[in-house]
Amino acid sequence: MNHSGPFVICVCAVCYSSIIQVHEGGEYTTKISGNNRARFLKVADQLLSGRICIASMSQGASKACMAIALRYSATRLTAGPSGKSDFPILGYQLQQHALIPL
C-alpha cells in the first residue's frame, strides 16, 4: 500500500494541525522545537494515551464477558447424577477449566 498519496497528507494535516502546518507545496512547519526525535516523542506521547484507553476498555469488556459466562454456566442445567436436569454445567470440571484455566 502506498502511503504517500495526497489523501494521507490531508488526513495527517487535519489530525496534527495543532502541531504541524502543511503548505501547498508539500513543505511543513512545526511548532515543536528540536530534532526529529523530539517531534517523534511528542506524537508518540499523544498516541500512548489512546492505547492505554483501548487497553482499559478491553479489560472492562473481558470482565463483563467473564461475568456473563459464569452466570450462564451456573444457571444452565444439564443431566446430572440423578438423571434429571438439575445439575449446573459449571459443576463439570471441563467447564470450570474452560472458563478459568489454572
Task: Describe this structure as you would to a colleague.
The protein is α+β, with helices and mostly antiparallel strands. The protein is 56% helix and 13% strand. The chain has three helices and four strands, in the order H-E-E-H-E-E-H. It has helices at residues 6-15, 36-75, 93-99; strands spanning 20-22, 28-30, 77-79, 85-88. The strands form two sheets. Strands 1-2 form a two-stranded antiparallel ribbon. The protein is rod-shaped, with a radius of gyration of 27 Å. The protein starts with 5 loop residues before the first helix and ends with a helix.
What percentage of amino acids are in beta strands? 5-15%
Classify the helix fraction into a percent range: 55-70%
Low-confidence stretches: 7-13
What would you report as the Rg, rounded to the nearest angstrom? 27 Å
Structural class: alpha+beta
Number of helices: 3
Secondary-structure element sequence?
Answer: HEEHEEH
N- and C-termini, Cα separation: 43 Å
What is the count of β-strands?
4
List the helices and strands and how they pair.
Blueprint: H1 6-15, E1 20-22, E2 28-30, H2 36-75, E3 77-79, E4 85-88, H3 93-99
Antiparallel strand pairs: 1-2, 3-4
